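Intended use. Records like the one below are meant for learning the mapping from a protein sequence to its folded structure. Do not use them to infer anything beyond what is encoded.
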Amino acid sequence: MTNPSPIAQEYLREGRSPTCPIIDLHGHLGPFHGTYMPAAPLEQMRRELQKCGVKRIVCSHHTAMAYDMDLGNRLLLDVLAAYPHEFLGYWVVNPNHSELIARDLRDLHAKRGVVGLKLWPDYHLVPVTSPKYAAALEYANEHELLVLCHTWGESPYDAPGLLGEVAAHYPRARFLMGHSGHGESDISVAPDVGAQSERLQHDAWWQPHATRFPGVTHD
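Structure written out for the chain above:
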């Protein structure tokens, strides 16, 4: 590696950079069905994050995403309360449970450590452009929250172009394009969508073509 950056050299020597710690904006808590996750237990996850030089990570809970939104979001709050200097949280919004969303939004601002919303349209089978997300997105817009939305290829639920449409309607919210549309559009539509607004940013998690994105360079 020829990168002269002191930070890069620090990574080579130590495997992390104490002078430039990582703030990770795309994390998950808890186990997930069908996936081997040896660091899923919380204390093991904390050790791995510290070893890699992650100062803080923003997470949603797998239980809220895939099983029980109410239970999973409460489990998230437990972690945020126990480790406030290590974890921040995304509140999972499952659009199939409008009554729970309405209840949660009434006092979401008071939930310490919650800094944004997590959407997973592909799994919940509701397009991100659906009115079912409107209440949550209006809340995010009002409070200028970060919204992490899973995007994947040319999915009819959360292709990058669909999230671009949504972001245009909520100009005060900030959107993070989870996986940057990994799949069919990962080197075409996703970069174009992300270039439209500074409030719609790329997430390079599982993104082998990140060098194609504006402003992203590797050595």
